[in-house]
Every structure is written in C-alpha cells, then in structure tokens.
C-alpha cells in the first residue's frame, strides 16, 4: 500500500466534487450542503475516504469497503478532530447509524442518545451529564407539576409569554430552555436575556440556555436517511429521546408545554413525536397560539418583519415592554 495522504477537498472544483460525490454514493449517502470543511484520504491518486464538518458536527463519513476496518477510519477521524481544535471547537458531535455506534465509542466518543434509526455521540471537554448538573433539581410533590418549555424566542414575544404564564399557573415550577442556535437577528445571549427580562415577574419560572442538546434541526444530518419526511421524523424523535432520558430526569419534569403551530408541518410533527416518546412519564400539553388585539396570530417571524420594515407602531401588540425597549434601542425603530 502506498502512503496514505489526508488532504482538504475543494468542493468548488468539479473534478474533486465528482470524486467526492461518487464515494458518498458508494456508501448510499446523500450530499449535504452548508459544510464548513471536507477532507479526503488518498491512496496515491485515488480518493478512498472522506469526512466533513459543519461547525462542531462531524458528517458525511464514507470509506471504500476495501479500506474499512480501522487504520483509515482512525486516520480520518484524527484529522477531523484536529481540524475542529484548530477551529476552536473542543466539544463536538457525530450523528451516525446505530450499527456504527460502537466504532465511534472505540475512539472515545460517548453516546448522548440513540433511537432505532440514529445515534448521537459526543466527545471533548463537555458532556451532557455535566450539562444537566447545572440545573437545580425540583422537588416533585404528590400533586405538584414541574413544567418545561423549550423555545427559540427570536425574539421573545407575547405569544411566548402567554405560553410561559399558562404553564406557571398550572405548575409549581417551570423551567424554560432557550435553544442555542445562530438565529441572525438576535444572538443566543440576547434571546436568553429577553426571556429572563420578560418573565422576571414570575417567581416560579427559571430560564436556562439550552446548550447543544436542545432541538437544532440545522445540524441534524440527513445524508444517511432516504426520504425528507423521514428526516423530520427521525430528528424529532431523537431530540425527544434526549429530553426524556437526560433533561427531564435532571429537573424532575412532569409536563412539557408546547405551542400549537397550525401552519407549520415540521412543528406539528415535532409535537407529535414528543407525545410518542415522552408519554406516559412526561405529559405533553399543546397550548393554542395567542393573538394580537386585531386578531393576528402572534409570531416571532412577524416581529422580525416589522423590524426590517421599520414598522414600530404595532410592536406593542406583539412583544412585552422589555422586548420592545430592547428592539428600539438596538434597531432604532
């Protein structure tokens, strides 16, 4: 065997892109876009293995059958993990088929959660077990409900507030997790601050950042799943499984609150997956969306449209005073 070489693959080059797509197809993997880095292992001039990154997620691992079995896999993953460190990521994930779970565990990855279709593993200077230690475990009385809500809050609206206040009236304690994601207009830290400010009057509500373990469909890989509808189902079931097995026990959660989304197919599938996975240990309450004074359904997307249009006159109908003040100071609308 000639000396194996690891190289960055330039996917803008049609020749290299074709070779990359061919090796993915040989392993029945689909092409994913928005990758931040792609590497290949070459035996002479032949591309024999490839792997990619999207931020801190390892994706698109494909190795020709003749080279599977250890050395090439270890070389490829070692290179990708080194590249992650060079990019400032010291905690990273891989989504894979359950049949490959043990292969990644052999090189130090630990399982976060697994379903029949997909497995999420992690490695680095953090872990989900350390993450959940940050939460104060709630005392669960015989008749007490401990509620939980997961939201993007991009930005925090009166709709979000209505959902939280509804849960706060029914539960002894409510824990709100803000999803960690690059939302563009409002940063992760800004969104956490807005939720905290908007719920400061509710003594039984606590707000936490969701870290890397709450639903973030942007990084879920679809390359080893054949149908788009399956992708949505698998990712929602995996997210619900993480919540059931890791998050809910850490806070003694007894009921998960979600907002009704009559016009969002993905959200409806997600809510259905929550019911399938969480019940009976954790109840699922679907709360109808609240409306503004003129009957419009309140949504964060409408608020962002108002900001972009410079239309501040209706902000008060859609967001609490704390959010409105922040928007006016940041965007001068």
From TrEMBL:
Record Pfam families: Citrate_ly_lig
Residues of the signal peptide: none
Catalytic reaction(s) noted: holo-[citrate lyase ACP] + acetate + ATP = acetyl-[citrate lyase ACP] + AMP + diphosphate
Molecular function terms from GO: [citrate (pro-3S)-lyase] ligase activity; ATP binding; lyase activity
Keywords: ATP-binding, Ligase, Lyase, Nucleotide-binding
EC top class named in words: ligase
InterPro entries: Acyl_CoA_acyltransferase, Citrate_lyase_ligase, Citrate_lyase_ligase_C, Cyt_trans-like, Rossmann-like_a/b/a_fold
EC number: 6.2.1.22
Domain of life (superkingdom): Bacteria
Domain Citrate lyase ligase C-terminal per the UniProt entry, residue ranges: 146-327
Protein purpose: Acetylation of prosthetic group (2-(5''-phosphoribosyl)-3'-dephosphocoenzyme-A) of the gamma subunit of citrate lyase.
Stated name of the protein: [Citrate [pro-3S]-lyase] ligase
Highest classification ranks of the organism: Bacteria, Bacillati, Bacillota, Bacilli, Lactobacillales
